[in-house]
What does this fold into?
Amino acid sequence: MTAALRAIDGVCAWQGRAMENDPRWRFTLSRDNIAEIHGALAAVRQRGLAWEQMTKADFPLPGTAGLLAEMAEELENGSGLANLSGLPVSEFGDRHDGGLRHVWYGIGLNLGVPVFQDCNALLMRDIQDEDQDTDALQGHELTARNGSRFQSSKARTLSNSLLRFHTDRTDVVGLLCVRQAKSGGVNRIASSVTVHNAMLRRRPDLAALLYEPLHRARLGEERGGELLSYALPVFGQIEGRFTSHYSRTYVEAAQEMLDVPRMDAAHWEALDQLHDLAEEHCMEMTMQTGDMQFINNHVIYHARTAYEDHNDDPGGASTNQRRLLHRLWLATPNSRALPDDHQVLWRNVAAGTVRGGIAQI
It folds into this structure.
């Protein structure tokens, strides 16, 4: 192996079965933590601040800071996963004016800097089944070379279909479960470090290909993104730290573009093996109402099974029971440095910088 092709040791290289029973990534809010959150919410609402206007100073959580610091350490220097449970969603309500968005955004501010999730400066995305063609509505349609429609990653996220293993375009993605589906919607989480190490053992030739740039489409991201692509490796290492950025949908979309070099069979085989290894080594969990899940995208791939939603029947017992998650993308102050060739995506590759998200063009 060359110097670049080294296995990564440490607790970030975990196995799914063992991880399911490991308490290191599970955290719980105490009564005092919840009382402090109520107090911070009351203060910002008394001032009339919209959640988008808040800064960390507007939502101080000094009594919860130790807990959040432990989570930040686990995310960057531990397993890369932290689940914080116990938020009493019903006490805040899930309407735009109910306070829950203030609380969720305020917790996020105490872990990092929220970055934009689309070209319209969106800071909090509602992950739910939109039950409509979001690509067409937002002008992000892509026609494949065979004339068929190609569905963007964002459109797939806003459906009840399964999501393949991928990373998000941010240091840490946070999900707050407001309501869970009737069935399905299981989170699947795999250590990308473990996937990388397993590929090095089994097929180092394929692992080497994933250290080379692969073209990805900017479909559904920047304005005009359906016409643009960028080249970025799937795997990277610097200063003994690992990073992986991957979504097969963006790779497939790029291959539908006429000006992008065609991938050969070996590259597709490498991506197939990445998926198979993630399946082999992943863990599964179902979030419950009030759970907050944080994932370090540099060391974890995540996926979701398809789900069946509750019927949204006005006046019926299941009104407003459809699956709903609130998503934040966070640039974290203790983040790792990234290789120089990752600048095309992250813009800033130095440790601890505000980076990632969608550029506002």
